[in-house]
Specification:
The chain has 129 residues and is of the alpha/beta class. It is built from three helices and five strands, in the order E-H-E-E-E-H-E-H. 28% of the residues lie in helices and 18% in strands.
Amino acid sequence: ACWVSTLIVAAIVPTTTMTPARVIFMHGLGDTPHGWADILRSSFREQLPHVTWTLPEAPRAPVTCNGGHVMTSWMDLHDIPVTPTAYDDEPSLEASVGKVHAAIDEAVESGVPAERIVVGGFSQGGAMA
């Protein structure tokens, strides 16, 4: 499975009268959502009780710049650092963008206003955002 439960971080029911919000946060190359869940939970649970978090997991695939080793990756990278002329792996990019759009659609369908959805990430996940 490539997705972690939406409530992995904010495993609480919003208790405020604030309009619900959602953060969709993507991890970096070789990481997993579990690497971020605890820090996000401890950092934001009390300050943002009206926010739920979706932490998608990138597919596992060979990554060219890492000798073809299989790891979580939003897209294949041929070289690091990435430059403006770097190869774009369009099939994996399109698939990952589709997963982000699906997470946004799910948030809207669950009642979160589109203007209260934030998409972000770290490293390769930030590039996806």
